[in-house]
Amino acid sequence: MNSSLGLAAELTDAVARLGAPETVPAKARFFQALPGGYAAGDKFLGVRVPQLRGLARRYRSQVTVDDAEELLLSEWHEVRLLGAILLVEMFSRADALAQRRIATLMLKRIERLNNWDLIDSSIPYTLGPWLYRNPAERHVLIELADDDLLWRRRAAVMATFAFIRAGEFGETLDLAAKLLGDPHDLIHKAVGWMLREVGARDRQVLDTFLDEHAPSMPRTMLRYAIEKHSPAERHEILMRKRK
């Protein structure tokens, strides 16, 4: 474990050396880390995502799940994001047992994935595929969607991207209906995005969902869902919302 902690510290130092302090204020605003924002108090180093992916490629043959978990515990946003990226790398090459361990870790540490970029870059490629291949565990989606923590609810929605890519839409549609009354804009955006992905693969499935739910959908959710519709179709669907 000491060597693992040593590598996590080395990676943290490597991220810090890539930092651009002059970009930190803009990042804090963009990710709503200022007082009153959904990520108030988060800390940034000013490192770009391509730089983090470069580090991940350089270290992926050395890093363990323990290393990645240590990175997720960091106070720095970009270090946590590196941990998430590395877990995706590991998951893609892991056997079934190791994939279960990674999926379990994602569930355990979702509170450390405390912004939309951290969720969206990891959950659809780790927890999502694992749940898809393990139907007996899919109750986790409902448990996450029922949680008070915003990031758990977003994780539930984004995990279903793995199901969508496999041509299964039921979980996404069920969660979309369940979360129609969610108060947070980040959930509206995530649900609308996943509905749009359903429609990209089967337009009739999406339109059937909209026929039932469009009038009660939050406007942001609805707009995201119908982005690929024609202007005339978008106008007609949005008119239903106004009635």
TrEMBL record:
PANTHER family: ARMADILLO-TYPE FOLD, DNA ALKYLATION REPAIR PROTEIN. This is Putative DNA alkylation repair enzyme.
